[in-house]
User: Fold this.
Amino acid sequence: MIEEEKTGYADIDRLHEKREIARQGGGPEKIKRQHDRGKLTARERLNLLFDEGTFCEIGILGGESVESPDADGVVAGYGKIEGRYAGVVAYDYTVKGGSMGQVGEEKATRIREIALKSKFPMIWLLDSGGARIDPKSGFGAGGGDTARVAIFANTGYLFKEESLMSGVIPLVGAMLGPGFAGTAYIPGLSDFVPMVKGKSFMGLAGPPLVKMVVGEEISENDLGGSQVHCTVSGVGDLEVEDDAACIRAIREYLSFFPPNCDEKPPRREYAGDPEALIDDRVLSIVPENPRGAYNMHRLIKMIVDDGCFFEMKPQWGRNIITGFGRIGGYPIGIVANNPMVYGGVLDINASDKAARQIWLCDAFNIPLLFLSDVPGFMVGSKAEKDGIIRHGAKLIHAVAEATVPKFTIIVRKSYGAGYYAMCGKAFDPDLIVAWPTGEISVMGAEGMVSIFAKKMLDAAPEEERAAMVAGMADLIKPHLNVKMAAAQGYIDDIIDPRETRRVLFRALEFTKNKKIYRHPRKHGVYPV
Amino acid sequence: MAVEVRSPITGNVWKILKAVGDMVEEYDLIMILESMKMEIPVEAPQSGKIVAIKVKEGESVIEEDVVALIE
Assistant:
């Protein structure tokens, strides 16, 4: 017995050696190649991600060889970000191209379980060739060896689990390199997907398979690069310059979130007076000309603490602005129309983007601020063929369903169903106020005239019609102003724009204990 | 090092309000575009001196086109 123990301890030095071997990943040559591509290694990324000295690794001894482990191409574990735990699975491109092998997936499963049970966020750092098609440690055939082909029948648990984790703990799927096939649905099912510019790619199939299956010859970048996903498809949330910027974005994103759906988002210390008035420059933001667009980003920056606004999908669906900021230290999710792009109209992408932001904030108890200047939903045959009713319904469904504190500010116009979608009175805002420039109406004055005066206009000579419309519209316009809605008690108040931060700070405080109970159901039938 | 002022949207240049040599503050209006029946301001991304205006009134621009340079 004593002899056996001695033998076990004699292995201690060897244990440390083996860990050190694993920490070398694919070796100096592969690491150099990774650096030459302008990328960091998985372990270097984790050094930036976690507070110093807090990373605990699991499964470092994994891999094909017991004596010379390589962690099987996945660095897994947990560590602290600003003092709070988060789990991580970082694919190591220097080992077998960061491919998903059986041991690596065993480790990833373990960390997912730990993150879900202990209820802290889960982060994937993706830089992977996808599923390992290899007869020894992967999921396929090779060299006449077909014994492992059938293993695939018992895989796919990660996507099911990730789906069920959604809304329980925050999920981040960061793209720092390739992520085709298996590794593309990880970000697809995540809440936040930053992508490194020009270095990351995702797609359900990579270029070789695409060529074989559909005959299309296309580069990785044109198929699923950061530009494609952050400006065209909307799958990516943020295009970042390099690995370090990507890690910084993850840390900043998570700073707005509680560790799980049972907790409140963390309030950050704020040194200033959150009730102080915004300075007079806020009065010059909305131009006098109703056709004049203005910089809604600038307004947002005047409302949030220190002008710090973390924007989601800034290059996609730009007619709506979504993101996070703080007021008096309290995190707040923002949904704002952007009059600079298509007049801030709600089209299919804007509806999709706003609905996602609302569901995201509602899942994690982050109050929502709606800044409304919306001409309505997009109309016309193209919009209808694109399914604007379905996408618009998705946004309305999300706003209606959200039980977090909701605050609505009518900055300028708020017309038609756009008023509803931007959390109009019927959608239970905890605060609904307007700037003096606000207008609420079923539609704009000209639109109203064209309907109620159609017969009169049809009968008039064509050259007189425009003047007739303008004349009648001028009579209606004063009645669209929020003065009328305020006089009837439909909105809570008309505020001086300089009071905007003060009223929002007070609203964040008085809604702290808000709790809404809905009729029990499995879930709504989402109009997606 | 000159800073590029880019068009926020595809549209037509309606009015140019500043000229080469003018000093501007951050957020000052440099020109107004017309797009989707809206007047779209092009603002100075930072304070400085305008060293080039790259478009003329009536010209059409595409989103992200460089319309002016500030130094």
In short: The two ends of chain B are 6 Å apart (CA to CA).
